[in-house]
Amino acid sequence: MNIEEIRDYCLSMPGTTEHLPFDEVTLVFKVGGKMFALIPTDELELSISLKCDPGRALELREHFPTVSGAWHMNKVHWNTVRQGPGITDELLREWIDHSYALIVASLPRKEKEKLKGR
User: 25-62 burial string, b = 16+ CB within 10 Å, else e?
Assistant: First the structure.
């Protein structure tokens, strides 16, 4: 996936908004006002930082050499993923979905209902 494909995928999720809060080069995707994905656009190599539960974050880092603790956030709960061996488009979409789902699960019930269209 390239940056535009990832951007489109993130924005296709209910309630997702795009922001530039850190600097002028990092795309930030939020749901319910909380970040679930960040993409620096000024790097030569595509990377994306994603929220992750701590056990899964560590497991992914151990299994994939191009996954590391995120540069910008709590490294226990955030991973930065770079393209590399074993990082397929399908896997990347799964990780984006997981990050989004973690944030949605943490939202108040009223916010969750808005996302479902109730």
Answer: ebbbbbbbeebbbbbbeeeeebbbbbbbeeeebbebbe
Total domains present in the chain = 1
CATH number at residue 80: 3.90.1150.30
* Nearest CA-CA partner of 27 in 57, 72, 64, 77: 72
Q: Per mean pLDDT, which of 10-14, 17-21, 24-28 is the most reliable? A: 10-14
Report the relative pairing of strands 34-40 and 26-31 from DSSP bridges: antiparallel
**117: region left, alpha or beta (phi > 0 left; psi from -120 to 50 alpha):** left
Q: pTM for the complete prediction?
A: 0.88
Q: Whole domain around residue 97: which residue ranges?
A: 3-116
